Amino acid sequence: PLAIIILIFSMTTPIWSYNTVLLTESLTVSTLVLWLASIVWVTSSVHSNSLWPLVGLLVAAGLTIFSRPQLLLVIVPIQIVLLIWIARRNQLAGIAWVTGLGLIPFMVVGLYRVYQLSTVQLYQFRYALNNLVDKGSSFRPYALENMPSCEAVPAALNGSAPWNDVHALESTLMNSCPETWVWFNSSKASVQSWVSADPVAAVMDFLGSMTRVQLSVMSEGRAMPEWLSNAILNPAEPWLWMAIYLISGMSAAWIAGVRPRFTALSVLGVGVSVLSPLAFMFAMWASDGYDISRHIYPALPFIGLALLIFPSVIPSHSSRHREPSRSA
Question: pTM score, two decimals?
Answer without folding.
Answer: 0.84
